[in-house]
């Protein structure tokens, strides 16, 4: 198994933690020199906090681990393409590389709607790799939303 796949699998494990809490299954890990320094999964519903995205939680944990807001050589692995808020936090924390599983046609800012992470107008840019375990990441989200719709219609308990 290659390195990107290995860490994306960890991000998927985080996403499954979110799903167990009836959260949208999005997970993230941040790696520095092959050591995980931050983990997070979506907690928006649990915390009723619009900023409780997997990336935001993982970035906060990584900064706490390093006792620094600068995550300059770190890599972020996330199951869903970062939104504008998370892309901004990634830039502000100086993360070197972002790897995501599946694109987000409604909010993706790492290549789908725009690429904030590679915009030369900012003082920092990130390398972006996409499509790692794309089928697994996409299916996890699709299944979650299908089941949610079925529950709302009364077909699932």
UniProtKB/TrEMBL annotation:
EC number: 3.5.4.33
Catalytic reaction(s) noted: adenosine(34) in tRNA + H2O + H(+) = inosine(34) in tRNA + NH4(+)
A Gene Ontology molecular function term of the record: zinc ion binding
Keywords of this entry: Hydrolase, Metal-binding, tRNA processing, Zinc
CMP/dCMP-type deaminase domain: residues covered: 2-120
Co-factor binding details: Binds 1 zinc ion per subunit.
InterPro entries: APOBEC/CMP_deaminase_Zn-bd, CMP_dCMP_dom, Cytidine_deaminase-like, MafB19-deam, tRNA_aden_deaminase
Binding site for Zn(2+): 53, 83, 86
Gene Ontology biological-process annotations: tRNA wobble adenosine to inosine editing
Catalytic residues, chain numbering: 55 (proton donor)
Pfam short name (any one): MafB19-deam
Keyword Zinc: yes
Cofactors named for this entry: Zn(2+)
Family according to the record: Belongs to the cytidine and deoxycytidylate deaminase family. ADAT2 subfamily.
Protein function: Catalyzes the deamination of adenosine to inosine at the wobble position 34 of tRNA(Arg2).
Protein name, entry field: tRNA-specific adenosine deaminase
Taxonomic source organism: Caldibacillus thermoamylovorans
Gene: tadA
């Amino acid at each position: 198994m290659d390195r990107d796949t290995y860490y994306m699998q960890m991000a998927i494990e985080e996403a499954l933690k979110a799903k167990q809490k009836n959260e949208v299954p999005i997970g993230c890990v941040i790696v520095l020199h092959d050591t995980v320094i931050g983990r997070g999964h979506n907690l928006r519903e649990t915390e009723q906090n619009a900023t409780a995205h997997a990336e935001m939680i993982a970035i906060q944990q990584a900064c706490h681990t390093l006792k620094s807001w600068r995550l300059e050589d770190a890599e972020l692995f996330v199951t869903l393409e970062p939104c504008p808020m998370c892309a901004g936090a990634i830039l502000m924390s100086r993360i070197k590389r972002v790897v995501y599983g599946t694109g987000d046609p409604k909010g993706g800012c790492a290549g789908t709607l725009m690429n904030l992470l590679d915009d030369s107008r900012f003082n920092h840019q990130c390398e972006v790799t996409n499509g790692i375990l794309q089928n697994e990441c996409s299916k996890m989200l699709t299944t979650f939303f299908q089941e949610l719709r079925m529950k709302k219609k009364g077909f699932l308990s």
